[in-house]
Amino acid sequence: MTITIWSDIRCPFCYIGKRKLENAISQFKHKDEVSIEWKSFELDPNLRTNPDISTIDYFVNKGANKDQMSQMLANSTAMAKEVGIDFNFKDAVVANSFNAHKLMHAAKKINKQNEAKELLLKAHFTDGKNIDDMKVLVALGESLGFEAEDLEKQLNDSALDKNVAEDQMQAKEIGVTGVPFFVFNNKHAFSGAQPEEVFLEALEKAYND
């Protein structure tokens, strides 16, 4: 049974949704038969990496209300804490996620996508690391088992660019407009960081179809 997920490393609800899904899978009696495939989706493909501005300032510059944005970040921080994740928006680096998505595709080749996703999300939301910095990505890759030189070569290769582009084209074809977006066994789909019981119900339904 395969769960296909479109998400962005820059999306807080993708991190929360990942944890809620994992909690649901842990309660699923056929959990050993579940595999997860991560697909690339960029919330802002044109974003320029800028370590010198805060997350709030980035959104305000795009037209958001500062007070409303502060409240939204506080709300998502509280939601994250409920599932054991510490968001640290104060130190989060405003960074383009394209190269991080390339790391996800490199990790797919060695069956380490889940581990790579967790490392990237934690690096961005908790540790204040720049997910568009090649040194950061290579260091994360080394902890997955990559040789630094080999991974750097892959991340600089346009072959992985095509993989990212294909994922995003596929998202467009099936009508994905927001992430996280979950597809269970190519049959049942929904978006958002849903409650664990919704994920568990989707798992049961997809398994029994």
From TrEMBL:
The protein's superkingdom reads Bacteria
CDD domains linked to this entry: DsbA_FrnE (cd03024)
> What Pfam families does its record include?
DSBA (PF01323)
GO molecular function terms noted in the UniProt entry: oxidoreductase activity
* Regions crossing the membrane: none
Chain coiled-coil ranges: none
Instruction: Give residue ranges for domain DSBA-like thioredoxin.
Output: 2-203
InterPro entries (UniProt xref): DSBA-like_thioredoxin_dom (IPR001853), Thioredoxin-like_sf (IPR036249)
Q: What is this protein called?
A: DsbA family oxidoreductase
Organism listed in the record: Gelidibacter gilvus
